[in-house]
Every structure is written in structure tokens, then in C-alpha cells.
UniProtKB/TrEMBL annotation:
<feature type="domain" description="Thioredoxin">
    <location>
        <begin position="3"/>
        <end position="168"/>
    </location>
</feature>
<dbReference type="GO" id="GO:0042744">
    <property type="term" value="P:hydrogen peroxide catabolic process"/>
</dbReference>
<comment type="similarity">
    <text>Belongs to the peroxiredoxin family. AhpC/Prx1 subfamily.</text>
</comment>
<dbReference type="InterPro" id="IPR024706">
    <property type="entry name" value="Peroxiredoxin_AhpC-typ"/>
</dbReference>
<dbReference type="InterPro" id="IPR050217">
    <property type="entry name" value="Peroxiredoxin"/>
</dbReference>
<dbReference type="GO" id="GO:0033554">
    <property type="term" value="P:cellular response to stress"/>
</dbReference>
<dbReference type="GO" id="GO:0045454">
    <property type="term" value="P:cell redox homeostasis"/>
</dbReference>
<dbReference type="GO" id="GO:0006979">
    <property type="term" value="P:response to oxidative stress"/>
</dbReference>
<protein>
    <recommendedName>
        <fullName>Thioredoxin peroxidase</fullName>
    </recommendedName>
</protein>
<keyword id="KW-0575">Peroxidase</keyword>
<dbReference type="Pfam" id="PF00578">
    <property type="entry name" value="AhpC-TSA"/>
</dbReference>
<keyword id="KW-0676">Redox-active center</keyword>
<dbReference type="InterPro" id="IPR045020">
    <property type="entry name" value="PRX_1cys"/>
</dbReference>
<comment type="similarity">
    <text>Belongs to the peroxiredoxin family. Prx6 subfamily.</text>
</comment>
<dbReference type="InterPro" id="IPR000866">
    <property type="entry name" value="AhpC/TSA"/>
</dbReference>
<keyword id="KW-0560">Oxidoreductase</keyword>
<dbReference type="GO" id="GO:0008379">
    <property type="term" value="F:thioredoxin peroxidase activity"/>
</dbReference>
């Protein structure tokens, strides 16, 4: 079954480039991004992991741990890490899970439809994971999911922006509008009337009775 927003992220224990990881323990009080990629030593994946390596400081500022997954073994991940670092010019110190057992890929619905063919129809290509991203909150619940096909590299600036939006609206009666970026106004939820909204968030910019902007709290 697919994982939905607000589901508890499946827990697992797996080997990784940073040793054995018990996922929920590893998460601690942080946000986390778990993201799958098809295979080590492939071109698009190398650019993606390089992008994540370059953004390490940005994720840390947001109290967010990042962890990669693919169906390759730790020894391959460790060799491939050298290529990622050479390509990106940044240390790739986030863990990469050894999911040769497909445990994580199955729990997180990271496999393409072709994987579910009869066994004789399986090839290395259809046991490769697609490009799935989950943002998980400190309460271990899924906040955001996205899935890209193997041929399309993800935009990690957008993932960072989405993380900012998730954190700006987590547990408060606020939402972010289309194309929002940090620093822009946010939308006040309809659960607050105008008086309550103004008392909580200051002056409102009321565009429509149901579309009311306020300055994002610092
Ligand atoms: C890649 O990362 O370049 C890739 C991996 C699997 C299928 C297609 C592209």
C-alpha cells in the first residue's frame, strides 16, 4: 500500500555507509529527507547526490537529516561516494542505505510497476528504485512525498523550498501560496476568523474573504 501524508514513516534497521541505522532512532528530534535513486554509478544519480552533498549546510540549518537509498551494497556506495565528491567538490557525508534486500524500497513504495511482474520478467532495470522523496517530521510522520521517473533528475532547490514551506506551516494555522519562497507572506487558515487571525499574525492583507495573507512569523 502506498504511504500517505501523515502516515508514520515505516521504521527499519539497515546497513548504510554510516553503519547500522535504526531509522526512527536515527531520526531523533530532527526532520529527515529519505530519498531513493535507481543505481550507483549512473549519471543522473551522480548529479543528484552531488547536489545533496553541496546542500549539506542548508539541511543542517533546517535541523534536517538526509539519507539516500538504493538497491546497491554498502561497498558500492562507498566507491561511488568518491565519484560524487569528485564531481560535486563537496563531501558526501550523509548515509546511503544498502537496500540489496529491497526492504526499504518495498516499505516506502520506491519500486516501479514493472517490479511487480512475475519473477521471470525481472531485470536489473526493474529492481532499481525510482526517484522518491519523503520529508518526515520529528514526530516520525510523513509530511511530503514526491516521485520522479528514472529519466528525470530532481530539483533539490525545490526540495529545500518545500522543506521550508513544511516547516513554516507545521502545527500552525498557516499555509503557503503557489511558488512561495521564504520571506514572502503566508496564508492564514480559515479556521481563524479575521479578528483571531489579526490577533495572532498582525495586519492581514485580505485579497478575498477566503484568501488572507499575513507576514510569516519569524
Ligand atoms: C541515471 O541515474 O542516470 C539513470 C539511472 C537509471 C535509469 C536511467 C538513468
Amino acid at each position: 500500500m502506498s504511504i500517505r501524508i501523515n502516515d508514520v514513516a515505516p521504521d527499519f534497521t539497515a546497513e548504510s555507509t554510516a553503519g547500522t541505522i535504526k531509522f526512527h532512532d536515527w531520526l531523533g528530534d530532527s526532520y529527515a529527507i529519505i530519498f531513493s535513486h535507481p543505481r550507483d554509478f549512473t549519471p543522473v544519480c551522480t548529479t543528484e547526490f552531488g547536489a545533496v552533498a553541496q546542500l549539506a549546510g542548508e539541511f543542517a540549518k533546517r535541523n534536517t537529516k538526509v539519507i539516500g537509498v538504493s538497491v546497491d551494497a554498502v561497498e558500492d556506495h562507498l566507491k561511488w561516494k568518491r565519484d560524487i565528491e569528485a564531481f560535486s567538490g563537496s563531501p558526501a557525508d550523509f548515509p546511503i542505505i544498502d537496500d540489496t534486500s529491497l526492504t526499504v524500497a518495498k516499505a516506502y513504495d520506491m519500486l516501479p510497476a514493472e517490479f511487480y511482474l512475475p519473477v521471470e520478467g525481472r531485470t536489473p532495470a526493474n529492481t532499481a528504485t525510482v526517484r522518491t522523496v519523503y520529508i518526515i517530521g520529528p514526530d516520525k510522520k510523513v509530511r511530503l512525498t514526491m516521485t520522479y521517473p528514472m529519466s528525470v533528475g530532481r530539483n533539490f532547490a525545490e526540495i529545500l523550498r518545500a522543506l521550508d514551506a513544511v516547516q513554516a506551516t507545521d502545527g500552525v494555522p498557516l499555509a503557503t501560496p503557489a511558488n512561495w519562497v521564504p520571506g514572502q507572506d503566508v496564508i492564514v487558515a480559515l479556521s481563524l476568523n479575521n479578528e483571531q487571525a489579526a490577533a495572532k499574525y498582525g495586519d492581514l492583507d485580505i485579497k478575498l474573504p477566503y484568501l488572507r495573507f499575513a507576514k510569516a512569523p519569524k
